[in-house]
Amino acid sequence: MTENTQKPVILVGGGTGGHIMPLIAIAEEMNARKIPFIYVGGKESREEKMVKDLGWQFVGIDAGKWRRETGLKSIWLNMGDGFKVIAGFFQSVKILRQSKAEVVFSKGGFVALPMVYAAKFLKVRLIIHESDVYMGLTNKLSARFADKVLTAFDPKVFSNSDERYIQVGIPIRKSLRAAADLKAPAKNRPVLLVMGGIQGAMAINNYIKQTLPELVKKYDVVHSVGEQNFALFKTARESLKKTDQAHYKPYSFIDRELSYYYQTADLIISRASATVIAEGALFGKTMYLIPLPTSAGNHQVLNAKYLAEANAVEYREQYQLSGEKVLADVNELISNPDKMKQLGSNLRNYFNENKTIETIMEIILNGKS
Known about the structure:
CATH class of the largest domain: Alpha Beta
Helix content: 40-55%
Distance between the termini: 14 Å
Structural class: alpha/beta
Strand order of the largest sheet: 3-2-1-4-5-6-7
Number of strands: 13
Order of helices and strands: EHEHEHEHEHEEHEHEHEHEHEHEHHH
Radius of gyration: 21 Å
């Protein structure tokens, strides 16, 4: 397949930012190269809104969700969603036949499964991407059919890896990649960037709220609190001393300003989402990770633990923490610049995000790594 083909590439995945944002990054590159693509995701979903806002072609399909609980309600819901997967399969077959697509790139999420089965049924080349140390259920089911299994972490972390598994990192948006090459702006204080995602991170938010008066004495704090929590943290800012309020900036969600804050941050406090970790790696930043304890397959804890063993991040599990402990850890890290520099360097070298997009595009378009 060459770059001037008129047959579109199918990009499929959704549900969470970890599935959507890497596909957005690939779509940006395809759009820049004038390579046709169709983003397939859930109907009336977060990914549908984002893709359509960017002016790209989106097709929604039905998708079911598998619930791991064993109660009667979960069993009943799983049975009903099984029919959605079947409907999504036939919708995917139709998309592939009408578009004559020769490649499907799946990022995972429940919405990807019908398209994966359709690609297998029609013998369409299938590439999947896994961001975490622990492979998600959709990707576990997809890996057996895939022509290539692209990973963020070393393929050796997967017990069933073979020659199809290739470590490539995580696709990151063009605006962030461009900003990573720029010199960081001048500043007067250390900057803490606290990442909670679109929905926020309640435990992390609470640690920051408990220690905010102490944090702003030393640091500039930029805080992504989540859309539902913004009013609360706006009030928290107003409750600070007038002289301290300028040192705390809460956001419902950081979007356009994200590249600037990645540049200026000295320390990133975050959940252990693989996408956020990869973004931190691109900028060579020190990361203090607090994994979500309820993540599927405990994948966030595994991500953080694996990278901590490689001396690439600092992490604490949520049950170990309090606001005071987070404050003490932050103070200790900031006071040890040599350790922070080493952590950031090790993280950058582990993911090597500079080559990720080019490598993935070569695999999609030409089947080569």
